[in-house]
Amino acid sequence: MAETFLYLTIGTNDVARAARFYDAALAPLGLIRRATEDTEVGYGSPDDPRTRLWITRPFDDKPATVGNGTMPALVASSRQAVDAFHKAALAAGGTDEGAPGLRPYGPAFYAAYVRDPDGNKLSAVHEGP
Fold first, then answer.
1. What CA–CA distances, in Å, run from 30 to 27, 77, 103?
2. How far, in Å, are 11, 22, 37, 46, 123 from residue 52 at the CA level?
3. Is the pTM of this model over 0.90?
4. Confidence class of residue 1 from pLDDT cuts 50, 70 and 90?
């Protein structure tokens, strides 16, 4: 199976704060922190040799800003994982952008939406029973 993308970056103005949030929010989705640097942290699946999600200070040293209309949707293995993602994200300093539930994008499109402490919007989605 070909990968859809090599990696994705999300900007932050506080790497330590972002790491605490993403460590908690991504754990229910089976993603682990694979890299820790002064300017970024990286996450991936334990069975993937690549780090595919980077939370990073912008390369140009200007403040990170939120992209209007930008939202990574992360795969969840179950509806329970979506619920756990939402709960963990809120407990780790995120804000609610849509509680877990079915959405009109398909008969089994179950999703939750949050914003990280920098204001970036994320989703966790499970498509199935």
1. 5, 8, 23
2. 14, 13, 15, 11, 16
3. yes
4. very low
Mean pLDDT to the nearest integer, 77-85 = 98
Measured distance CA(79)–CA(95) in Å, rounded: 20
Helix axes 79-91, 15-26, angle to 10 degrees: 150
Name the percent of the chain in helix, strand, coil, to the closest 5.
Answer: 20, 35, 45
**Cβ atoms < 10 Å from Cβ of 5:** 8
Question: Is the confidence at residue 4, as pLDDT, over 90?
Answer: no
Q: Which sign does the torsion angle of CA 12, 58, 71, 128 carry?
A: negative
